[in-house]
Write a structure and sequence with these properties.
By secondary structure, the chain is α+β, with helices and mostly antiparallel strands. It is built from 20 helices and 22 strands. It is 45% helix and 21% strand.
C-alpha cells in the first residue's frame, strides 16, 4: 500500500485518481493541467462552478471554451506561476461562467493544479456593502450641503454673497466639478453668469453661451430647464444629442454629467443653476432631489433679499416723504415773506427802468431783475418738491411737449452734446401742469448735461406703458452714478456738484412734480456708462388741450380804480405805483377789514380788488367771500406766494408778480366784467 502511494505521487495525477478519491467530493473546485494547459483531471465541484460538462472538459485546452480569456489577467497569472514554479493566488471574474473565482495555483514540472471557490456571492455582498456605504456617504454629504446652504440663505446680506457662497458649497461639499448661477434677461432670453465656482468654471463660461431661446444656444440642458420651468439632467454629455454644442468644452473642462435647475423667484423664472460632474451616470434620484431642494433654498434667499430691499425702499420713501413734508412746512413759512421781498425788488426795478435812459444803468437793473426772478424760481422749486406749490393739471401731448422743449434746450445743452428724440407715435397724453412737465424735462436734461463734461449723447424718449400711461425717459452717456448716489438723488439739497454749480434742488423738484401728478420716477445708472431717468405718468382722461392764442397785446389801464390790499407796506406801495404808471387809479389797504371799509365808503367806486391771501385780521379768501356778497359786480384777483389748495372760483397770481403777467391778468379780468 505504501509503495502504491509513493508510486501515485511520482506519476502524473489522472482523472481516475479523482474519481477514486475524496477529492471528487469536496466543495472546492480542483482542476489539473498538463504542461500544454490541457485538462487532465476535474472534480465535480470545479465543473459545477464553471458551468461545463466534466467529460467535455477533459483532454481539451484551458481556453477552448473561452478563447477571449487567453490574454486575460487570469491567464497571465497562471503562466507566471508555472514559469516561476511559485504558488500563485488569484481572484478574477470568469466571464464564460459569469462568476467570480478565487483560489490558488500550484505549479509542478508536469503542469499545474488549481484549487478555487465560487466567490460571486461574497463579491455581491461586498458590492452591496460598498453601495450602502456610498449611499450613507452621499446622504451625509447631501445633508451637509443643505445645512450649509440653509445657513448661507439666512446669513447672506446681499444677492452676490448668497450666490457666491452657494456655488462654493456645491463644489466643495457637494463633490461637483463646477457650478454656476446665471440671471435670465427676459428681454432677449440671454443668461448672464452672476457667480461660479470649481475647476474650469471661468474658462467654460468665457467660451459658452446659454439662453432660453429655442436656438442653438438654448438647445442644451440649461435652455430646456428655462423654457420648461423644470429641472433637466444629462448623465452622459457624449451621448446626449442636445448637448452636442457643448461637447468640445465638456471634454476640455472634464465633465460627463450636467444638470440645470431653473431659479424661480416670486413666481417668475429669474435664472439658472448649472452643475457639472466628472463621472457619467452621476445624477441619481438622490442627487436630483438634493439639487432641486438646494436651488429652492437659494430661490427663497433671493426672494427674501428682494423683499427686504423692497421694504428698505418703502422705508426710504417714507423717510424721504417725511423730510419733504418737514421742508414743505419750512418752505411754506418763508415763501410768503420771501416772495414779498422779491416782489418789491421787481416792482422798483421796473419803476426805475422806466426813468433811466443810460444803457449801463439799465443793464445793471436787468441784472437785478434777473436775480430776483431766479430767486422766485428757487422759491417755486422749493414749494414744488415740498408739494406746496399750486399746479394746473391739463391734458398734455407728451410728444409735442418733448419736441417743444428740445428747441429750448439747444442753447442750454451746448454743441458738444448730441440731442435726439425717440418718440413713440402711440404714447398716450398725460394729466400734468404743462409748465411743470417742461420743468421736469429741462431739469433732467440739464442734470444730464452736467454729467457729460466732455460731450456725449442725450436722448429724450416716450413710450406707452403696458399698465397704462406714458413713460418719458431722459438718457445720457455721461459719467453715471453709484447705487448709493442714485438712492439719494431725489433728496433736497443733495448734490455731487461743487457748491457754486448746483443747489441740489433739480431732481428734488422733478420728484415733487411727478409725485403730485400721480406718477413715479426711477433712476437706472451705471458708473462710466451713463444714466437713464424714467418718468412714469398716468394717462389723461381727455384729449390734449388746445389753448387759444392771446390776441390782445394792449394791457395798459384805462383809468379804472384798483384797490390794492397787502399787509406788506413796501410791496403794497410799489405795486400801487406800478399800476398808477400803467394807467390805473389806485387805493390801498393793509388788510381785508380796511379794504371793506373803503368799499363801503360812499363815493368810492372800485373796479377791481387786487388782494394778498395771507394777511392779519382778514385774509384775501375771506375778503373775496364778503366782496362777492356785498359788491358782486366787483371782481377780485388774489396774490399768493403759497397755495395749499386751488380756489376754483378765483383768479390767483403767484408771487413775485411779473409786470406783464399782472397787467395782462387785470386787463383780462376787467374785460370779462
Amino acid at each position: 500500500m505504501l509503495s502504491g502511494t509513493v508510486g501515485l505521487r511520482r506519476r502524473s495525477i489522472t482523472q481516475q485518481d479523482f474519481d477514486s478519491s475524496i477529492i471528487d467530493r469536496v466543495n472546492d473546485g480542483i482542476v489539473v493541467f498538463d504542461t500544454d494547459w490541457r485538462y487532465v483531471a476535474v472534480n465535480q465541484a470545479a465543473a459545477r462552478i464553471v458551468g461545463l460538462d466534466r467529460d467535455t472538459m477533459l483532454g481539451t485546452l484551458l481556453w477552448t471554451f473561452n478563447p477571449g480569456e487567453a490574454d486575460s489577467p487570469l491567464a497571465r497569472l497562471f503562466e507566471r506561476a508555472v514559469a516561476t514554479q511559485e504558488v500563485g493566488e488569484f481572484e478574477e471574474y470568469f466571464s464564460p461562467a459569469g462568476r467570480w473565482l478565487s483560489g490558488h495555483i500550484f505549479p509542478s514540472p508536469d503542469g499545474a493544479t488549481i484549487v478555487f471557490i465560487d466567490s460571486t456571492q461574497r463579491h455581491a455582498n461586498e458590492r452591496a456593502l460598498r453601495t450602502l456605504l456610498e449611499q450613507l456617504r452621499r446622504q451625509r454629504r447631501l445633508a451637509s450641503v443643505l445645512a450649509e446652504t440653509n445657513e448661507v440663505v439666512f446669513r447672506a446680506t446681499n444677492l452676490q454673497q448668497l450666490l457666491d457662497s452657494a456655488t462654493r458649497i456645491v463644489v466643495e461639499l457637494g463633490g461637483f466639478l463646477m457650478c454656476w448661477v446665471g440671471e435670465l434677461d427676459p428681454a432677449n432670453g440671454e443668461v448672464h453668469p452672476l457667480a461660479w465656482a470649481g475647476q474650469g468654471a471661468r474658462e467654460y463660461l468665457t467660451h459658452v453661451r446659454v439662453s432660453a431661446r429655442p436656438d442653438e444656444s438654448g438647445q442644451g440642458i440649461g435652455g430646456q430647464a428655462l423654457r420648461s420651468g423644470t429641472a433637466r439632467f444629462s448623465n452622459d454629455v457624449r451621448l446626449d444629442v442636445s448637448m452636442s454644442t457643448w461637447r468640445h468644452m465638456a471634454s476640455r473642462v472634464g465633465f460627463r454629467s450636467v444638470g440645470g435647475i431653473p431659479l424661480i423667484v416670486n413666481g417668475r423664472i429669474r435664472g439658472l443653476v448649472a452643475v457639472y460632474a466628472e463621472e457619467s451616470d452621476y445624477f441619481n434620484d438622490e442627487e436630483r432631489d438634493l439639487l432641486q431642494r438646494l436651488v429652492a433654498n437659494v430661490a427663497y434667499g433671493w426672494e427674501a433679499l428682494e423683499n427686504e430691499e423692497a421694504l428698505r425702499q418703502v422705508r426710504e420713501e417714507s423717510e424721504r416723504t417725511a423730510r419733504l413734508e418737514d421742508l414743505g412746512m419750512l418752505a411754506g413759512g418763508v415763501a410768503h415773506d420771501f416772495n414779498n421781498l422779491l416782489g418789491v425788488i421787481l416792482n422798483y426795478t421796473t419803476l426805475v427802468q422806466r426813468r433811466v435812459n443810460d444803457d449801463s444803468i439799465r443793464d445793471d437793473l436787468d441784472a437785478i431783475r434777473a436775480a430776483a426772478e431766479r430767486g422766485g424760481g428757487l422759491t417755486r422749486q422749493l414749494l414744488t418738491f415740498a408739494r406746496r406749490d399750486p399746479t394746473t393739471p391739463q391734458t398734455v401731448d407728451v410728444n409735442q411737449a418733448l419736441t417743444s422743449v428740445v428747441k429750448l434746450l439747444e442753447p442750454v445743452i451746448g454743441v458738444d452734446i448730441e440731442v435726439s428724440l425717440d418718440l413713440h407715435p402711440n404714447a398716450p397724453s398725460v394729466a400734468i401742469d404743462p409748465q411743470q412737465l417742461d420743468q421736469v424735462i429741462v431739469n433732467l436734461s440739464v442734470n444730464a448735461r452736467d454729467a457729460m463734461p466732455r460731450g456725449g449723447r442725450l436722448t429724450l424718449s416716450s413710450r406707452p406703458r403696458a399698465e397704462g400711461g406714458t413713460e418719458v425717459s431722459v438718457t445720457d452717456t455721461g459719467i453715471g452714478m453709484s447705487d448709493d448716489v442714485a438712492r439719494r438723488a431725489f433728496e433736497p439739497f443733495f448734490t455731487t456738484k461743487p457748491r457754486e454749480q448746483g443747489t441740489g434742488l433739480g431732481l428734488a423738484t422733478v420728484y415733487g412734480i411727478v409725485q403730485r401728478a400721480g406718477g413715479q420716477v426711477a433712476i437706472t445708472s451705471t458708473p462710466g456708462l451713463g444714466t437713464q431717468v424714467r418718468v412714469l405718468l398716468p394717462e389723461a382722461d381727455i384729449s390734449p388741450n388746445n389753448p387759444k392764442d392771446d390776441v390782445d397785446d394792449f394791457w395798459e389801464g384805462r383809468g379804472e380804480m384798483i384797490l390794492v390790499v397787502d399787509d406788506d407796506t413796501p410791496l403794497r406801495e410799489s405795486t400801487a405805483r406800478l399800476l398808477e404808471e400803467a394807467g390805473y387809479h389806485v387805493l390801498s389797504a393793509p388788510d381785508g377789514l380796511a379794504a371793506l371799509e373803503i368799499l363801503h365808503t360812499p363815493g368810492k367806486s372800485i373796479d377791481l380788488v387786487l388782494s394778498d391771501r395771507a394777511m392779519p385780521r382778514m385774509g384775501g379768501d375771506q375778503l373775496a367771500e364778503r366782496v362777492h356778497v356785498t359788491h358782486p359786480h366787483v371782481p377780485i384777483v388774489l396774490m399768493t406766494g403759497l397755495t395749499d389748495e386751488k380756489l376754483e372760483s378765483e383768479v390767483v397770481l403767484e408771487k413775485p408778480l411779473n409786470e406783464t403777467t399782472l397787467l395782462r391778468t387785470l386787463r383780462e379780468v376787467l374785460r370779462g366784467h
